[in-house]
Amino acid sequence: MTEPAGTSGNPNAHVPGMPVVAVIGDGQLARMMQTEAIALGQSIRLLAGTPDSSAAQVAADVVLGDYTDLDDLREAVRGVDVMTFDHEHVPTGHLRQLISEGVNVQPGPEALVNAQDKLVMRRRLREIGAPVPPFAAIESVEDADAFFDAVDGAVCLKARRGGYDGHGVWFPATRKELAELTTKLLDAGTPLMAEQKVALVRELSAMVARRPSGQVVPWPVVESVQTNGICTEAVAPAPELSEELAERARQLAVSIAEELGVTGALAVELFEFRDGNGQPTIAVNELAMRPHNTGHWTQDGCVTSQFEQHLRAVLDYPLGSVETTSPVTVMANVLGGDADPELPMARRMADVWERFPAAKIHLYGKTWRAGRKIGHVNLAGDDLPRVRREANLAADYLVNARWADGYTV
Amino acid sequence: MTEPAGTSGNPNAHVPGMPVVAVIGDGQLARMMQTEAIALGQSIRLLAGTPDSSAAQVAADVVLGDYTDLDDLREAVRGVDVMTFDHEHVPTGHLRQLISEGVNVQPGPEALVNAQDKLVMRRRLREIGAPVPPFAAIESVEDADAFFDAVDGAVCLKARRGGYDGHGVWFPATRKELAELTTKLLDAGTPLMAEQKVALVRELSAMVARRPSGQVVPWPVVESVQTNGICTEAVAPAPELSEELAERARQLAVSIAEELGVTGALAVELFEFRDGNGQPTIAVNELAMRPHNTGHWTQDGCVTSQFEQHLRAVLDYPLGSVETTSPVTVMANVLGGDADPELPMARRMADVWERFPAAKIHLYGKTWRAGRKIGHVNLAGDDLPRVRREANLAADYLVNARWADGYTV
User: Fold this and answer.
1) Which residues contact A125 (CB under 8 A, 6 or more apart)?
2) What's the pLDDT tens digit per position in A73-132?
3) Are residues B204 and B189 in the same domain?
4) What b-and-e string marks burial along B322-334, b requiring 16 or more CB atoms within 10 Å of the CB?
5) SS3 state at B380
6) Are B36 and B54 within one domain?
7) Considering only CB atoms, which chain B residues are within 8 Å of A5?
């Protein structure tokens, strides 16, 4: 008996004739892809680890399984039009195998490997002429020592794989500390690289979406504010960024997408710093080949959100307009605080809306855990300082259930 | 054993501590409520007739059942915070029973009855001083005859219940035709009323949302273009509408919501016509107590969409800003044409986006049927004639797979 197309999970979730996108990963990025899929007349097929995960809560076609298990992946992609991801951790070998079995994988493993391994990525970027801070593979304490000398002690040590949100990144203050860290991590089996710390002005993010057939569309460049290695705020467009530097950042992201063969959304996280002549310049920090925290503002500040654009891109549909709908849009993350306040989240939302009727709250269906990304607030307007202040007040209130500025009703 | 709250359908679909909204009805309005529920950290509980219906395709918590069956309704609302609707056809008696069992029903049966029965609605509107065209109950051919005389033959005959999209509305040209229609319909058991045809300038729609605790927020008034009794286009805000008349329309909608105790979204469909002095004026045509076709533009042209606002309103959350995000937004419906073109819908979407990158396509997960509402296109911009033309070209292309203006690539 031949199985009809697209019927691995729940065939009722898909209208005949419309494409089915399999999303590997069950976090908030998959969840927000589902909202956009719905508008496009679709519903995603989800490979989820648990039935109550952020994305599984809101999808009718869920395959439960493990993204490191080839058979689970096979089950999740049976009959779909395209397979995509909400993270970069699916083993490359599995993806190659699936491609050999005829699966349409976007972005493909040759691109993804650059988002999986920080050393591979930097070597590739250097190869294509993209600016990156000086870096080296660290396979011994001798490597670490040599790099320490080469960059005058300004060392950032990174795990090559698996880091995120400040995890897997260390800033050793001394040669001794670097040596000890290196020994400990290598002994634990963590492949390492090191990179020169730049004299950071701020962080920027240049996002693009690219179709398999070639079209690339860059969004406006945003400023990304990091707190303890986690993105906590994005301001679109990046304030006081010269048009020349913005254009350079966009072109850099476009050329990385093209040279690396990225499809779907690509976030190029950038350092802005001063060059030897004191002029502002940029270098690549990290790449993410999927919708990204620094692109959440597009949901409420741009004609086409990153989640819709990602789906369109991996399906090889023409990309949408990235015109902004407001002079400024600020995204502020809602991260679980030290404790979960007694006031229920629903009441906190109500309090935020009472004070800021234009605040767009996006929650991920996650329960509290210290430091966990549980949502974000988008706010659009024309008065930058005010929009920033209000977006951050709103996000902070959702975390702490009290107004950081002492406001009382 | 006590059952935990919110676990009638799929408990995994809901994060602990967040409210659960039960939506009765499985069409596109429920589908679009789900997209907004997702952003708010929720997921709707759906009472659906079939597992592949428009809304059931995209919801993880679906109770299959019949909205006229009290036990099915009970099953659907078990443990939820509030029960709401994507149509007005749930029997009022059932709603009263559920309320007596402690269910929070929004809007309640006392309000809903006015959207269920056109005669009850008109009597109530007259009572509260809202402008309505002259009308009468039609229980016999004598009633029809008398009304025909009273309005000089300008008769619109309507089924009191169950009409939509031009169904249940007749325009008899002669006294004889009216008598024959009346006899036939009354014999078939269709309760009737008649209303004077107005010398229509155009149709408008004034929408508001209202919370149980009283807050009411009106959206900008839109022009609604009807073709064969079906809304095919909405233009927001209504072009060349005087601020005085717009304000009167908004105030009328607000006072209807208040007087009738409507909660959630309320659409007041209006006739604009000339009064005895040749001055433009308005009268109420129909009421809908739920998100409405004339409010779809809010998804891409307003800070708060009608679907988000409806959920917030029935949950008694503070309502969101209804600022427009663009000078003009046009919604054009995609209605199944006489035949379904060979070109698959996915390719039609691609062609539309190729030509109009800013077109926002919303599809409902429905297959083709002549005249069926299968989606809509929203387009925002600042040049009204151009936006209207392009939105309609895009919607028309999705229906017919050819450009009405002869455009070729």
Assistant:
1) A114, A132, A256, A284
2) 999 999 999 999 999 999 999 999 999 999 999 999 999 999 999 999 999 999 999 999
3) no
4) bebbbebbbbbbb
5) strand
6) yes
7) none
**Residue at B288: amino acid letter:** A
Banded pLDDT at A8 (limits 50, 70, 90): low
Q: Tell me which H or E stretch contains B332.
A: strand B328-335
Do residue A41 and residue B358 have CB atoms under 8 angstroms apart? Answer: no
- Does residue A272 share a domain with residue A227? yes
Nearest 5°: CA angle at A394, between A226 and A365? Answer: 80
- pLDDT for A199 equals 87
| Residue range(s) defining the domain that contains residue A346 | 200-400
Question: Which chain B residue's Cα is nearest to A361?
Answer: B40
Q: Tell me, what amino acid is at B243?
A: E
- Asked if A12's CB is within 8 angstroms of B31's CB, the reply is no
Question: How many angstroms separate the CA atoms of A157 and A172, rounded?
Answer: 8
Residue A158 known to bind ligand: yes
Asked whether residue A113 is assigned to any structural domain, the reply reads no
Nearest neighbour of B15 by CB, restricted to A39, A57, A315: A57
A367 with B320: Cβ contact below 8 A:
no
Q: Any known ligand binding at A240?
A: no
The token duo for B190 is 């269709």
Please list the residues that pair with A136 across neighbouring strands. Answer: A194
Q: List beta partners, residue B194.
A: B136, B157
CA B297, B269, B91, B365 torsion-angle sign: negative
Nearest to A353 among B62, B318, B325 (CB): B318
How many CB pairs lie under 8 A apart between chains A and B?
174
Q: Which residue has the higher pLDDT, B56 or A165?
A: B56
Q: How many domains does chain B have?
A: 3
What kind and span of H or E run contains B122?
helix B118-127
Instruction: Identify whether B121 is part of a domain.
Output: no
- DSSP letter at B212 equals T
| CA distance readout (Å), A63 to A96, A107, B159 | 21, 21, 47
Interface pTM, i.e. ipTM = 0.94
Question: Are A192 and A231 within one domain?
Answer: no
Instruction: Establish whether B195 is an annotated binding residue.
Output: yes
Q: Does residue A231 register a pLDDT over 90?
A: no
DSSP B152: T
Between CA B191 and CA A268 the distance in angstroms is: 65
- Cβ atoms within 10 Å, residue B216: 19
Those residues whose C-beta lies under 8 Å from the C-beta of residue B408, and which sit 6 or more positions away, are none
